[in-house]
Amino acid sequence: MTKLSVEHLLGIKYLKKQDIDLIFKTADHFKEVINRPIKKVPSLRDITIANLFFENSTRTKLSFELAEKRLSADVINFSSSQSSVTKGETLIDTVNNILAMKVDIIVMRHPNVGAGVFLSKHVNAKIINAGDGAHEHPTQALLDSYSIREKLGTLKGKKIVIIGDILHSRVALSNIYALQLQGAEVMVCGPTTLLPKYIASLGVKVETNIKKALQWCDVANVLRVQHERMDIKYFPSIREYTQLFGINLDLLKSLDKKIVIMHPGPINRGVEITSEVADSDQAIILNQVENGVAIRMAIIYLLAQQIRN
Ligand code: NCD
C-alpha cells in the first residue's frame, strides 16, 4: 500500500492495519531526516496548514508545528482564547474564513467529541484530529505504538496496560484501537469509578489491582487524572489515588521482570508516577515525544499527497 485508505485522520477507529504500517514506514524515513544536521525536507512547499487549538496543549501543538515546518509547509496558528470564537462565531464560520485564505490541511484540537468528523463533512480541507474531548487522539496513539515497536521490535503478542483515568482519556480509547489492530493484548487498570462501564466490551482485560496489572504487562502506559474534565469527585483524595495507583520504584522493583514505562504527558510528578520512575531507564517518555514529530510528519505528508493527486 502506498496510499492511506482514509481522506482525513479523524480517529484510529477508521484506520486499517495497512494504514498504520504505511504511516510507520513513512515515519521511519522522517525519523532519519530529523536526526540529520539539516532536519528539513522541501516536500510540502506548496501546502498551507492551519493549527486550530480550541483546548490547551503544549506537546501536541509544538510537535505538529515542528513537523509541518520540517516538511517546509506554510503554517498558521490559531488558539480559541485569543480569537473571535469568544465573540460568538460558529466553528464552521471560523474555519471557512481560514480556508478562504487558501489553507489545505486543518489540524484541530477541540473539547467536543466528534468535532473533527463534523468539520470534515462541512469544509473542503484535510482534517487531522489532534484530540476531540474525551474521545480520540489518533496521533498520540500512533506515536505510542511506534515507540513500543521501536523498543520491543513488534506489537504482536505484547501485553500493554493503560493505567489511570480511562473514563476521561482520549489517549486511552485511541490506544486501545491502535494496539488491538496490531495484535497486542490490552488491559486497563484504575479506580472502578474511572473505568467506563462498557470498557470490557472493547475486548480489553480489566484490573483494579495495580501490582497484578504491572506483573501481567510488558508495557505500562500511565495516564494523568484529567481533573479539568471532572464535575464530581471520582475518588476520595489525590493522596489515596497515589497510594493505590501511583507507580513508584519500590513497586517496579517488586516485579519479577523489567517493564517499559510510558506517559503521554503532561506528567503530574508524584501523583500517577514518581520522578524516579519518570526519569528511570525503564521510561521511554522522551522517546515518545521525539517519535511524535516523525509520526506527525508522516501523516501530514501522506494526506498532502492525496491533495496533489
Ligand atoms: C494528552 C491529551 O491532551 O489528551 N496529552 C497529550 O496530548 N500529550 C493527555 C493529557 O492531557 O493528560
Largest sheet: 5 strands, parallel
Indicate the radius of gyration in whole angstroms.
19 Å
Number of strands: 9
The CATH C-level class name of the largest domain: Alpha Beta
Pattern of helices and strands: HEHEHEHEHEHEEHEHHEHH
The CATH homologous superfamily of the largest domain corresponds to Aspartate/ornithine carbamoyltransferase
Find the structural class using helix and strand composition.
Answer: alpha/beta
Q: Helical stretch count? A: 11
Low-confidence regions: none
Structure description:
This protein is an alpha/beta fold. It folds into two domains: 12-136 and 291-308, Aspartate/ornithine carbamoyltransferase (Rossmann fold), CATH 3.40.50; 138-288, Aspartate/ornithine carbamoyltransferase (Rossmann fold), CATH 3.40.50. The protein contains eleven helices and nine strands. The protein has a five-stranded parallel sheet with strand order 7-6-5-8-9, sandwiched between helices. Helix 4 links the parallel strand 3 (105-110) and strand 4 (126-132). The two termini are 16 Å apart. 44% of the residues are buried. The site of N-carbamoyl-L-aspartate has 12 residues, from helix 2 and helix 6.
Summarize the structure.
The protein is α/β, with parallel strands linked by helices and 309 residues long.
